[in-house]
Structures
1.
Amino acid sequence: MTTTDSPPAVPAPAPARPRRRRSTGDTERGFSRTFRWITTGAGALILATLAAVALFLVARAFPAVTASPTELADAVPRYPDDTSFIAYVGPLVFGTLLAAVLALLLATPVAMGIALFISHYAPRRLAQVLGYLVDLLAAIPSVVYGLWGIAVLAPAAAPVWGWLNDYLGWFPLFAGEASPTARTLATVAVVLAVMILPIITAVSREVFLQTPRLHEEAALALGATRWEMVRTAVLPFGRSGVISAAMLGLGRALGETMAVLMILSPGFLYSFKVFQAAQHQTIAAYIALDFPEASGLAVNALIATGLALFVITLAVNMAARAVVARRKDFSGAN
């Protein structure tokens, strides 16, 4: 009896291994890691840019700072003889700070009043419209503010400055002969106040809106009026936020160029007579006025004045951060 050999058995194919799917947690961790690296890189880029700007200003300003008064007088227009560069920049720093501080003093109370009205007094529809109009002021170019200051504000302010000079001339800010054209630091301060008003208002409004509702209701439940509630609950909570807003506005006022250049009649004096022409000049306006025709050492002198403005702005922001950090646990600034 014969037997037939059966064909060899073919092994069955191994089952395919299931593909491991990434869990939602792995994906989120990957996104988180990527986002962390992006934000770290952005922060490092900002620091690197700031350091590069500072190094550029220091390197290009060094020849002017170390030059002799004779060399500077030959290269820089309107440079007085036998005057050091620090003494030459002094009146520019004084004019810049005086204009910015006056603008801040004018704008901050008005901005706080507008912010409180929008956040706690006005009906919702009126608050939305008013908030939109105030924010729209920030979109107006500075050259338009300069034209408005020359064509509208200066003629309207001239009799007001003259009246203040006649009746309050004993006060240092109102002393001196008032200019009939009103192209003075007082007019510049009003224009700068209008320019920084939307910045201070917007930040203050958001801080006031963050006041805990329980604090407000507790004050009202104790019998406080609306103003007493604002004074005892809203303003203490938003104090550091208002300071931050004011410092942001101050930084804008310190660096403003075109509006100041178009309105102000320049001078290089240490003077508090804000109604008198040819008394003051700001750093930014001075650079914009002289840079197109500058060359050689004059360019280095202009960059040195820019370095002074850079240091002032940096100091203002550092001081603001110190104030906010001191009270951040008791306010809505952060």
Note: The CA atoms of residues 120 and 209 lie 8 Å apart.
2.
Amino acid sequence: MSATGRHLNDPKGGSFWFDAGAVCLDFAHTGGEGQYAVFESLHAPADLAAWLAEPPLSAAGTVSTAELASAKTLRQAIWEAAHAQAASRPLPSGAIATINRAASAPPLRPRLTGSGMEWAPPVRATQALSTLAREMIDLLSGPLAGRIRECASDNCPLVFVDTSRPGARRWCAMERCGNRHKLRALRARRATD
């Protein structure tokens, strides 16, 4: 897994490129529970299979209904752990248990081919979920743990890893929340002039 990022769709219309800086965090933004259910993109097992088959994971395979349910449970755990880390709160014990349980399954196994790398068959969804859980463990326990951030916009819950050299990334995407902030600041300055 190398490059990260995906197009996110807004239920009000439009889409934008969002790079969370880690595939496991990209996965956390595929939908959610409660107020985030409007962003759900994994409605059926085929939706999860298609998401897993896209780069950088490129783990094409079939997905069962049970694996879809496990994926959504893992996704919620990653979401909760990332937000806790970004807010410097203790990681929720339930999220930790879910991530550890997913990581205990065998991960995807890389295999060298004449033209690069592929995952050794058979590729199963549980292996892909294990790989995502292991990436989250590495992220939360590694040198970038202190760089997990929530978008600085007051109404954007997206989380990302700030991989910028100075560690100064504030927005989920400059073309979305960053530009909105600049526009609001400009209007406020003009209103006071």
Note: Strands lie at 6-9, 15-18, 110-113, 116-119, 148-150, 159-161.
3.
Amino acid sequence: MLKINNLHCKVEAQDGAEKFILNGISLEVPAGEVHAIMGPNGSGKSTLSYAVTGRDGYEVTEGSINFNGEEIGDMAPEERAARGLYLSFQYPVEIPGVPTLIFLKEALNAQRVARGEAEVSAPDFMKLARTKAKQLSISMDMLKRPVNVGFSGGEKKRLEILQALILEPKFLILDETDSGLDIDALKVVADGVNTLRAPDRGMLVITHYQRLLDYIKPDVVHILAAGRIVKSGGPELAHELEAEGYDKYIGEAA
């Protein structure tokens, strides 16, 4: 479903210097599987998510990104989103003045139009929004507020998953979805993510810690260090990291 081959990516630092963050990543996530990316700060986890989804400022200098048999490396972010890629941000942004319900409706219809599908009517959208919001304990009053403005960390992360439930992407990239969540919010978010697991959908879960993977069970765990995948294995690899830390993998990648 998602196939990354020998991916190199650089960014421009604040001092104007160019810095390579990804140094030859190869990764394949088949449909129906959940893969986890774990690694220390600065290893390239978020950069990988930005490179795949086409964020400005992250220049792919070598390698390829293939999604459902189509090369997407030169596509704009909105084109990749219309193809079915979804990124849940580590730090969701606030959008003052834009009610959350309007934002969600416009996002859904923009993607439907891009795929040549009919827009969802206002009554049908409201029915959909109520149903999905209830799954995540999100009130309709919350959805009338501007996007993420005044939201707690847990509310922002639940809203990210609500977007995914409404948009129903083909592939989800969750960038540290557990960041800033207490245990109750973590369970709610994880339950929402687990409802999206399907034989025709893939997921890439990016996290520092094993605790998220207690609730979102991965098929494969990859360890990222210095912009490279240094080891892959089953779910037990996350428990090994929890017990032993990243030090030996940082040494291997150096």
Note: Residues 2-93+170-253 form a domain with the Rossmann fold fold (CATH 3.40.50.300).
